[in-house]
Amino acid sequence: MRRIVLIVFLAALLLLIVGGTAAYTYVSGALKPVDPESEKVVEVDIPIGSNLDSIAEVLEKNGIIKNAKIFKYYAKFNNEGEFQAGKYGLTKAMTPDELIESLKTGKVYRTPVFTITIPEGLTLDQISKVVEKKTNHTAKQFMDLVQDKEFINRMIEMHPDILTDEILNEHIKFPLEGYLYPATYPVFEEDPSLESLVMMMLDSTDKAVSPYAEALAEQKHSVHWLMTFASLLEKEATAETDRKAIASVFYNRMEEGMPLQTDPTVAYAHGEHLSKTMYSDLEIDDAYNTYKNPGLPPGPIANAGMSSIEAVLDPVQSDYLYFLADKDGNNHFAKTYEEHLKNRDKYITNAK
């Protein structure tokens, strides 16, 4: 009887050890990255109001984790929670701890393969050259994509709050001009697709502009109006404080029915940089020429940073109708044409 009891005990102990080992192996395996070598970024959308259960299911569905239940228990065991909703660029190479950190901070907790910086005031053509230098894609391939009708329509569907039919106006040269937000972007793939890069920049524009949706609605203005106006400030201003003052000049001119007469729109109409705007340049018959056409141009002439966007929505209150920049890039403002001419003589003509 003792021998039987001993055998049963040893058998049960062996099963327990084997079962425990198998369970440990299974759990530890489930907590390892799905694919440690993967560099492909997967866009994962965590809706507002999501709890740990639903977040784990979304991650498993997108192939970011192996097992939703084990990830959930791991997070609970470590007292992790209060994850942020939003769109995440995640990879199958991320560990549970990296995923948890990303979901808590709203940022991707991984070292990028490289970064790509898009400065303020760049046109799509200039952005294409930045992309060409940093990736395996050519500037032409970039420009072909941002002019592709099917791609543009798909972007409108994905970003209805910022991209509307206004960008399809027949006078607009490039529908996505001004909508690729200036920022430094982390890239987690050796060879990212052009679509993923453009989508990343559009996502940033969406996030940057969305807080101002209510203010725009109150003023009965569209995002396209905002991005167009802001692009003019970005190209005209040389100092942070000048943006709000220049915005007031443009507001005052539009209220008076005066043309904006801003040189950067003339350069954009010509499709090239003009080191100096000549009188002959002002004669170009183009919808973007604000010397010939009243109000704002059909669309943005470059991308705009946050300071320019905020200047449009919160300009200084002034009676200025004119401004000019001296040889050092400092702007000088005037209420009357006579004052403007004095500034011209003082800061430009006599300064030569």
From TrEMBL:
Keywords annotated in UniProt: Cell membrane, Cell wall biogenesis/degradation, Lyase, Membrane, Transmembrane, Transmembrane helix
Its cellular-component GO annotations read: plasma membrane
Listed under catalytic activity are: a peptidoglycan chain = a peptidoglycan chain with N-acetyl-1,6-anhydromuramyl-[peptide] at the reducing end + a peptidoglycan chain with N-acetylglucosamine at the non-reducing end
What InterPro entries would the database entry show? MLTG-like (IPR003770)
Name the enzyme's class: lyase
Q: Which GO terms describe its biological process?
A: cell wall organization; peptidoglycan biosynthetic process
Q: What is its EC number?
A: 4.2.2.29
Q: Which domain of life is it from?
A: Bacteria
Residues annotated as site: Important for catalytic activity = 236
Q: Which Pfam families match?
A: YceG
Q: HAMAP family in the record, alphabetically?
A: MltG
Annotated function: Functions as a peptidoglycan terminase that cleaves nascent peptidoglycan strands endolytically to terminate their elongation.
Family membership, please give it. Answer: Belongs to the transglycosylase MltG family.
Q: What is this protein called?
A: Endolytic murein transglycosylase
The root-end lineage is:
Bacteria, Bacillati, Bacillota, Bacilli, Bacillales
Which gene codes for it? mltG
